[in-house]
Input
Amino acid sequence: MSQPVTIGRRDVIADVAAALGVAPEEVPEDADLTDAGLDSVRLMSLVEKWRSAGAEQADFATLAAEPVLSAWLDVLVPADQA
Output
């Protein structure tokens, strides 16, 4: 049986930054990503990308409910990889 694929902290930050059109270091972990310009279409694209990479925990409704990078990292990145 294969192990589940996970995405790393850097991957999530880089993907969010790319969706916003900024450098990864410009995305504060406590910022509201909706206020930063992330719309639902971009969020759906991120969710699809992460789910395609094997991150089954990537869920549009969960991430949309709290559009803050630090909250997303808690959901998407296993504690042993944080």
About this structure: The two ends are 25 Å apart (CA to CA). Residues 40-52 form the longest helix (13 residues). DSSP finds four helices and no strands in the chain. The mean pLDDT is 90.
